[in-house]
Amino acid sequence: MADTGGGTEAAARVVDVLLLFTDAPSTLGVTRIARELALSKAVVHRILQTLVARGMVAFDPERREYRLGPAASALGARALRDSDLRSAALEVMRELRNDTHETATLTALVPGGRVYLEQVTGTHEIKMTVELGRRFPLHAGSSGKCMLAFLGEDAREAALSEPLAALTPNTVTDAEALRAELKVIRDSGYAHSGGERQHDAGSVAAAVFGATGEVIGAISVCGPRYRVTPEFVHEIAPRVMAAAERVSRRMGWTGQ
Fold first, then answer.
1. Residue 226, Cβ neighbours under 10 Å: how many?
2. Right CATH number for 5-74 from 3.30.70.3400, 1.10.10.10, 1.10.275.10, 2.40.10.220?
3. Fewest CB atoms less than 10 Å from the CB: which of 47, 118, 229, 239?
4. Residue 22 pLDDT > 80
């Protein structure tokens, strides 16, 4: 049956509403969704009621806002369980955590940014944790920057042409400064950051590549910023790169 333009547009609006929850705080109101997506409140309200009826979102009566529902959680859990990248990386992440005693994370490249797929938390009493499933921009933090560095030039420049939001005072928001840093990352093979995505957090990351040589994700080690010193970065960067290469080869990558 031929698809109609109206049906395609309606489906796209529903998907856009759901994806907005991956970027935002835990709850969203009708007004904010309408503003972010340039839709009328009436359209947003109808979409949300449909999603509520199917368990994809739930209404929070205290906040009078909406959050992701149990059906969305089930879909996300199934996607994580079936992820080839997660399966390829989990053993390597555990070894990296045991080796460094800091939290190891796995990030996947997604349209418009990146999401954390998995983490293996560190062994220190004070340790870093990340929010799985929430979309973050590529320019903030070591995992995003190492993926951005190895994107094709057109995709990289498209990302750099967008407004670069400051997630913290340390986020690099100048495109020219970021271009220079990305060249250093490509030359060295790893990225590091201090307080760029999250206050008082430091990390070291290396890109993961797929079978055709495209960047598909990143492996990182992260911890409190006071422990991620220049000496620590220098010590663990080769281990992070080796871990990322192992995962890349499990994903079919055969390059250098």
1. 10
2. 1.10.10.10
3. 229
4. no
Residue 178, sorted as left (phi over 0), alpha (psi -120 to 50) or beta, turns out to be alpha
Which residue type occupies 135? R
Structure tokens at 168: 């913290």
The β-bridge partners of 203 are 193, 222
Q: Which fold has domain 83-250?
A: Beta-Lactamase (3.30.450)
pLDDT tens-place string over residues 203-249: 999 999 998 899 999 999 999 999 999 999 999 999 999 999 999 99
Write the CA distances from 166 to 86, 173, 195, 198, 246, integer angstroms: 29, 6, 11, 11, 33
* DSSP β-bridge partners for residue 218: 107, 207
Show Cβ contacts of residue 150 under 8 Å, excluding neighbours closer than 6 positions. Answer: 186, 207, 209, 215
Domain locations in the chain as residue ranges = 5-74, 83-250
